Structures are given as C-alpha cells and as structure tokens.
Amino acid sequence: IELTYQIGKVEFVDLPTHFEREKVIEGIINVTTFSGAPIPYKKVYVLEGEGSSKKLLLNLTTDISGLAKFSVAPPEHPTTEISLQASVYPVEKYQGYKTPFFTNADTRIRLLQPATPYSPVFSELKIASSKEPFKCGAEVPITIKYYIVGETTEHFSIDLIYIVLSKGLIVHHGHEKVDVKGSSDIQRGEISFTLSVAAEFAPVVQVVVYSVLPSENVIAANKNFEVEKCFKNQVMRTSDCMYSLLMYLLFPVSQLSSA
C-alpha cells in the first residue's frame, strides 16, 4: 500500500486551449478532497508565470459546489502564450516531508493563430477527396486544385487534362485551360468537372490529372474513389412492390382481365 499525504486537488475545468487578442480568458476552478468530494468556501488563487517568477492574479473562493469562476486578460502583443496555475497556496510552496498538501493545476494557453494556406515548395496538383462512396446514377463533382510555383514566364496558360478510369478502361475524359500569371509567389486555383456515375464503375474509379508547365515540368495527381455496388437495372421501390402485391390480393388477375 502506497502512503500519500495528498488531502486534496485543484483542477481547471471549462478552460480554452487558445486565446484571442482583446478577449478575456474565462474558466472554472474545481477544488476537491483526495476522494473527489467538492470543498465549498475554500480560498483558491490564480497565478501567472512559471517557477519562482509566478505572480498572483486573482484571489477567489469556491462556491457550495467547490467551484470558482474566473476571468483574466490575455497577454499583450507580442506574447503568444500564457501560463496559469490554480492553487490553494498564494505563493509557490514546496511540500515538506510528511506534510499534508493539495496538488496544483497548471496549464498553458496559446494564441489562436489564423490558419495558413497550403504552400507547397514545388508546383503540384491535388484531387479533393470524397467522404462517402459514389452512388449509382449520381452526378458527382470532382474538384482539382492546382499550385504553380516558380514559373518565370509572365503570362501563360496550361491545359489540365483529366481522365477517369474503371477496370482499366477510360470512362470519362476532358480538359480545361487555365490562365496563370507568372510570379515567384504561388499561383493557386481550382477547376471541377461532373462525373455521371454508372453501375459499371463499381467498385472503384480512378481519377488521373496532369499538365505540362512552360518550364516543361510535368505535374500530375491521381486518386481512387469507391463506388457503391448497384444493379444495372433499377430495383422497384419497396412502396411500389407493396402496392402491386396489394392490388394482386384484392383484384385477382382474372377479375382485372374481365374488367
């Protein structure tokens, strides 16, 4: 049996993982006994920083449920991270031998950075994925994204040639001309075409796209898409089958013929 002198713990709950400039950081502190029972009306403190450089931000008291709500201002520019600690001790405390203690709660909250666009080093093509298999008879849009990098020609156009294969046979093909302005920066864009899904395409179709750049470099991409299994002839809907069966039972063929 391991002997511990921990008598309680402090935890952060409902605390964001990122902060935004000029928007307060809000959270809740939970103080419980070692067994997990809430401790009401307990003094608890919020400190900022790490190690001996921590500074006291807030002096709080838990409610009847052992919870204490708080809010702190976000750090100013250019700081991109804030370290917070919730503790029942107002200053950094080192536990002595065989001394009852509460554990602290520590967290780091980082600045929410805007998502940066995908920036490849070399020119490339990408075919957008599909979350679900293609359904028979559906008109499915296929999206192709292009990224052109480092072409020195000022203005040029390229042909994006696409081919759709099923069981080794070409079932669809086409091309689209794209005008590009030459630049050392990335030139990006997308095209799309519609694929009419036939029963013969199952279980998979492969989309291949390629293009030749003014530098004579070839860029290409391919992606497989699942196609649901289906019959070539459409199966009668269940409601239609039930209606036909009901008509047969109520009006035998002989009666229908004599009518």
Short description:
The chain is mainly beta and 259 residues long. It contains 2 helices and 16 strands. The termini are far apart.
Q: How would you sum up this structure, described in words?
A:
This is Alpha-2-macroglobulin-like. Residues 125-256 form the Alpha-2-macroglobulin bait region domain. It holds the Pfam family A2M_BRD. The chain has helices at residues 238-250, 253-258, and strands spanning 6-13, 18-19, 25-33, 43-48, 55-61, 67-72, 81-87, 101-103, 105-111, 124-127, 139-148, 155-166, 169-181, 187-196, 204-212, 218-226. The chain has a 5-stranded mixed sheet with strand order 2-9-7-4-5, with no helix packed on it. A 4-stranded mixed sheet has the order 6-3-1-8, with no helix packed on it. Strands 13-12-15-16 form a 4-stranded antiparallel sheet, with no helix packed on it. It is mainly β and 259 residues long. The protein folds into 2 domains: 6-111, Immunoglobulin-like, CATH 2.60.40; 124-226, Sandwich (Immunoglobulin-like). It is built from 2 helices and 16 strands. The radius of gyration is 33 Å and the shape is elongated. The termini are far apart. Residues 234-239 and 254-259 have low confidence and may be disordered.
Keywords:
2 domains; mainly beta; Immunoglobulin-like; 16 strands; disordered C terminus; 2 helices; 259 residues; five-stranded mixed β-sheet
Report the top-level CATH class of the largest domain.
Answer: Mainly Beta
The helix fraction, in percent, is under 10%
**CA distance, first residue to last residue:** 91 Å
User: Oligomerization state of this entry?
Assistant: single chain
Order of helices and strands: EEEEEEEEEEEEEEEEHH
